[in-house]
């Protein structure tokens, strides 16, 4: 009973959203019949496509840079001991808990202050949003990689060294394979975080640099047509697929930990 | 004379204020099965890590085949190690694990496969090439770890508590296996363990360590029969100690007496002791027998007491005998049941006379 309630509570709005994306009605208040029309319309909406392209580019660059920065941070925290290490470890996590609205405003002020150019050609004009996304994505990457590193059996590194491997070979053959599942999970997470972000992006985006959530928001301000539902459903689908892959990998990883 | 393969000269290693090993001198010969044993925290693992190159000694030098290892990193030493945790690479199958050392050396693939194949048959793992470590049993993991280290053809193989993770039956099997491998390959094995049974049954020579220093280096039987000090006597096997004072020296015959109860004991041997010196006499439980007081050989030591407890082991029984000396002490006596009827010759509460030969008594200075 409770199970049903929670499921309904959680997913009823989303299911309605998806169903009504197939609604053959302009006003989208009552059900008028099934159609793919609005998906077609969404696909042919150049502004929307542009926003999708922007979103995917930002998510891609965010993933790459967050992964590099997060992994290096995690390796630093794992391998070295230095003074105020725990303070550093705490500071890294702060972007995760600061309200997004604060980060958004702070970044807006910051970018204005340092005079970041607004008229760069594509895709450099996305750099502001990408930087903002890296800011809140890479701590997640660092946390995930750090957790994985903590499970590394240091004997393996010594064994590899003992068997004649140099440090590069150890990283490539021993440490990297160990980190692989965490790298995949954290890159999927960074990608979806970036794809779905609205609040921070809202402060960073300009007329040339709308992302999908911003675009959908602006479409809603005119009217809630099934086209909005269709665009949302596509975004939802991408997110769900990526999250499912992440969960699936993480489960395999948990199993492996159980065994060892 | 055996050729020395590994030499340690005055090796010390400190961790902060803790002296893990102090001034260790050791000579290990080519092709021998050497064992380092001692209680936990005695520095044996540190010593092993110094040999492998994972730790740099603070002073002293290490030579392998007369080459100073001072500036030789672990990946360049002619030494390989089998880790206590096995440390197999979990994402690689058996074949890749064993081939790892060859792969990083750039050995051609064809040759790699050939060598791995023969190594796996040597450790009796043929047919398991494609299994991942989590699909193997404890004994199989142990064999993979061995194969992975041996395939590098090391001059010396280090084994860190290799059998501690196995159950009793497997441990016995692996002991035989290790001896077989060592003899057939002729590689010097250095086994570190806290289990004296393991060391006694496998090693050609044993070094007993305590508190960062080597107490004695000897063959298993010599170590058991002629321990050089009280620690070694106590650590290897079980032993009874009697505290007394040297009262008389007559050539090779030493006469001891306990302080208050004045029980007298005779010991044969040659030792540099002085009259009046406080000593410990050590007698192994199986060297003591029960005798009627009137048939005791004059060359034997004797002591009377009461049986307080009997522990039955099947092939033998351990009697706990309380003797009334200056302190009430318990002497353990091991009686072998060489015949069916020899079981339970004495019962709890019986008064008995313990006797042992002068020659089987060890003397330790405090």
Described by the principal axes of the CA atoms, the overall outline of chain B is elongated
Task: Assign the CATH superfamily of the largest domain in chain B.
Answer: P-loop containing nucleotide triphosphate hydrolases
Architecture of the largest domain in chain B, according to CATH? 3-Layer(aba) Sandwich
Q: Quaternary status of these chains? A: heterodimer
For the residues shown, what is the average pLDDT of chain A?
88
Please write the string of helix (H) and strand (E) elements of chain A. HHHHHHHHHHH
Kindly name the structural category of chain B.
alpha+beta
Q: Compute the separation of the termini of chain B in Å.
A: 35 Å
What is the CATH C-level name of the largest domain in chain B?
Alpha Beta
| CATH-derived topology of the largest domain in chain B | Rossmann fold
Q: Rough shape of chain A? A: globular
Give the ordered list of helices and strands of chain B.
EEEHEEEHHHEHEHEEHHEEEEEEEEEE
CATH topology of chain A: MetI-like fold
Key descriptive features of the protein:
heterodimer, A: 260 residues, mainly alpha, MetI-like fold, 77% helix, globular, B: 366 residues, alpha+beta, Rossmann fold, OB fold (Dihydrolipoamide Acetyltransferase, E2P), 6-stranded mixed sheet, 5-stranded antiparallel sheet
Write the topology of this structure.
The complex is a heterodimer of chains A (260) and B (366).
Chain A: H1 2-20, H2 37-43, H3 46-79, H4 85-97, H5 100-113, H6 127-150, H7 154-162, H8 167-196, H9 199-204, H10 212-222, H11 226-259
Helix pairs in contact in A: 2-11, 3-6, 3-8, 3-10, 4-6, 6-8, 7-8, 8-11, 10-11
Chain B: E1 4-15, E2 18-29, E3 33-37, H1 44-52, E4 59-64, E5 67-68, E6 79-82, H2 94-104, H3 109-122, H4 138-150, E7 156-160, H5 168-185, E8 188-193, H6 196-202, E9 205-210, E10 213-218, H7 220-225, H8 230-235, E11 240-250, E12 253-257, E13 264-268, E14 278-283, E15 289-290, E16 300-312, E17 316-324, E18 328-336, E19 351-357, E20 362-365
Parallel strand pairs in B: 3-8, 3-9, 6-7, 7-8
Antiparallel strand pairs in B: 1-2, 1-4, 4-5, 9-10, 11-12, 11-14, 12-13, 14-20, 15-19, 16-17, 16-19, 17-18
